[in-house]
């Protein structure tokens, strides 16, 4: 019977390679963590800048904004049925004077959540809306990002609920749905109506947080 050759393992070399591999992995992980840390700050800054610009777009008279810290409680009291879609609210000021409010909502559209930002001035008029994000059908619900649809809300009384009609001439408390995208149109209107309720609650408090 032939003798089996013993396999000699150079443990010193194995340990050396393991240490080298560990060091390389640790350095790579550290570099990745540092990159994520730096880029996350940049992304956060860009997102905040974009949000500030959006707030200024829907409430152009305001030159500074203060967040409403207790928005969950305000939403639950003002719009219990829509509280879950109300995400944030800001009070806008022009100098030291109250300019109005911006409220972000996220109602469910045809393709998922649609982030809607609504501006309402101190006199209770809608000053504008904008769509912050959406996944609606291109050529249909995605038209909600176009001025032709959004401008319908501008100037409407924030104390009146807005309804959606499919055709015909819209009244002061109505908007016309995007052709072939009634679900999207109604979702956005739900968000605006919820924002109106939050506005009324904040206005009663005089902008108090």
From TrEMBL:
Membrane topology: Single-pass membrane protein
Pfam families: FMN_bind
UniProt-annotated location(s): Cell membrane
Any GO molecular function: electron transfer activity
Modified residues (FMN phosphoryl threonine): 182
Cofactor(s) required, per the database record: FMN
UniProt GO BP: electron transport chain
Cellular component terms (Gene Ontology): plasma membrane
Domain FMN-binding residue range list: 109-199
Listed SMART domains: FMN_bind (SM00900)
NCBIfam families in the cross-refs: rnfG
Entry's family note: Belongs to the RnfG family.
Quaternary structure and partners: The complex is composed of six subunits: RnfA, RnfB, RnfC, RnfD, RnfE and RnfG.
Job description of the protein: Part of a membrane-bound complex that couples electron transfer with translocation of ions across the membrane.
Protein name, entry field: Ion-translocating oxidoreductase complex subunit G
Upper taxonomic lineage: Bacteria, Bacillati, Bacillota, Clostridia, Eubacteriales
């Amino acid at each position: 019977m032939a003798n089996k050759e013993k396999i000699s393992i150079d443990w010193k070399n194995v340990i050396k390679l393991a240490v080298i591999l560990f060091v390389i992995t640790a350095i790579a992980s550290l570099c990745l963590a540092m990159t994520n840390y730096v880029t996350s700050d940049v992304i956060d800054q860009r997102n905040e800048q974009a949000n500030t610009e959006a707030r200024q777009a829907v409430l152009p008279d305001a030159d500074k904004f203060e967040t409403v810290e207790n928005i969950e409680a305000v939403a639950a009291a003002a719009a219990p049925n829509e509280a879950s879609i109300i995400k944030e609210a800001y009070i806008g000021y022009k100098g030291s004077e109250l300019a109005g409010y911006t409220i972000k909502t996220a109602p469910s559209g045809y393709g998922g959540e649609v982030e809607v930002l609504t501006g309402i001035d101190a006199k209770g008029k809608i000053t504008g809306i904008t769509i912050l994000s959406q996944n609606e059908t291109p050529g249909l619900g995605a038209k909600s990002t176009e001025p032709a649809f959004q401008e319908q809300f501008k100037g409407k009384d924030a104390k009146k609920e807005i309804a959606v009609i499919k055709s015909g001439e819209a009244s002061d408390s109505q908007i016309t749905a995007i052709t072939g995208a009634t679900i999207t149109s109604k979702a956005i209107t739900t968000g605006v109506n919820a924002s109106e309720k939050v506005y009324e609650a904040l206005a009663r408090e005089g902008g108090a947080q």
